[in-house]
């Protein structure tokens, strides 16, 4: 396989990752993703094209503003790299097929959600509603087998988290519930259950570690969206193998 087959999607992913940072940071605050142009939040200097080269600019500037020296969050760098790697991985595994469009949309949604949930602990309805029709269209053109698996997955995904939210009296946010609806639409019902299981394990372990480090109480709010996103992407690529392995060892 030619190296350009994955290098090009990786570069495209870096560029989109930079844009997803903007979307994830601005949409929760009801700000335009177009205006004002990217600028330093401290000195307000408008960033030039040399400041906005994904990954390269961050490394060359050593994670600081060129003008005032304010430290830039490493989240920008990691989101760009993660998006690039996931775009390349998806292209490598799926190839240039209609399903690739579905998974790239899926990855894009989850990356934006990770940014907004980490920074603000919010999963905006605007983002979910934007991706919803595209994912529905994607699953109409590239349906699961059987086709109703998407419908059942969406219903189970929404229903399980809604039930948990009611039983825990608000322990799960409404954004997480709606997000799992979209995930169920893409993955189907079995993979959705697996996603929720893995997300719960990841969320629990991460929460314990972070709260231990911070020395905060057990009731301190903690973003669950990143755990869901990590699990959903992992399950998209490897969930079927895990399920077959589990069934085979019953």
UniProtKB/TrEMBL annotation:
Family: Belongs to the peptidase A24 family.
Location of the protein in the cell: Cell membrane
Domain Prepilin type IV endopeptidase peptidase: 104-208
Transmembrane parts of this sequence: 6-25, 75-94, 100-120, 127-144, 150-167, 179-210, 222-239
Main location: membrane
Protein name: Prepilin peptidase
Domain Prepilin peptidase A24 N-terminal: 11-93
Membrane topology reported for the UniProt record: Multi-pass membrane protein
Transmembrane is among the record's keywords: yes
Source organism of this protein record: Ureibacillus galli
Pfam families associated with the record: A24_N_bact (PF06750), Peptidase_A24 (PF01478)
PANTHER family tied to this protein: PREPILIN LEADER PEPTIDASE_N-METHYLTRANSFERASE-RELATED, TYPE 4 PREPILIN-LIKE PROTEINS LEADER PEPTIDE-PROCESSING ENZYME
Keywords: Cell membrane, Membrane, Transmembrane, Transmembrane helix
Superkingdom of origin organism: Bacteria
